[in-house]
Amino acid sequence: MISNKPIFGGFILALLILGGAGIASYLNIKALTENKHLVEHTYQVLLSIDRIDDGLSEAERGKNRYIITSNTENLAIYQNGRRNANQAIAETLQLTIDKPIQQQHLKALQTIFQRRLANLQQAIALQSQQNQTTSTTSASQKALLKQGSQLQREVEALLAKIEKEERSLLKQRSLSTDRTVWNNSVLAGIGYLSSFMLLLAIYLLLQKQIRDRAATERVLSEANLLLETKIQERTAQLAKSTNHLRTIIDAEPDCLKTLDLNGKILEINASGLGILEADDDCQVIGQDVLPLIKPQFKDAYRQLFQQALLGKAGSIQAEIIAIKGTHRWVESHCVPLYDEQNQILQC
Questions:
Q1: Distance between CA 167 and CA 88 in Å, rounded?
Q2: Does the pTM exceed 0.90?
């Protein structure tokens, strides 16, 4: 018979492995969620960087159109681009508040950006001055254009640095996400495979235990059947012996009876029933024998019975009064009867 300890231990181990795989999966999913938020955050930063560039380009476009056409409606394009660029810089500063290097780049960008906007504003103001000569205006515009080109290159260089830093972070976070997915898959695969193998082993052990138990039950059933057959045979033999002994006892002409430790009749033979004038044993079984003895012999009978209880056999002659009133002289022999522990059981 297989012990239940390996099966129980296997179940516990399988549950622990499944629990460990579940915890690992939970932690990996949590890490994936965090990486997802970080990746989304990086994309937001990249988007805000693009909006800075778009806003500056829009302001540049509005300025150029105004210089070419002198149409004041183009100033609205310039103002809108300037406003969008400033908002994008402020948003990027907020998004990268936990990144000191990016904060330094953005503050430097903010300074150059303000200079670039001032350059654009000067070009617009210069175009608005109608009282200056064309040559002076053209020369000034060229100087402002040259300065603006230099500032634009500095802005683009800083934006490129900021974007490069963010894309580097994006790459790291993407790699971290890939590693987390891979680790989660491997851990889950190992956990589930190990649990499956353990459960399969437990299943095979249970099947073997069931087969062994069935075989044991067959052996026990056969043994019980054989034992029952022997018991029936012994019971039949005992009943036969009991009937034979009862026949012998009932054929005995003397009165044979057994008394309990209180002097009450337990068994009596047929001759005894006749001597006591009882119609059947129900009249005497469970009754005290002392009332049947004449008063002058009762003390002697009590003494005889007490000696038997102490393990000494004895006999007396006494006169009895049968149930129907007949007086008879009898010789009573009283011997103790012992049980398996050598204790007096009956007399």
A1: 18
A2: no
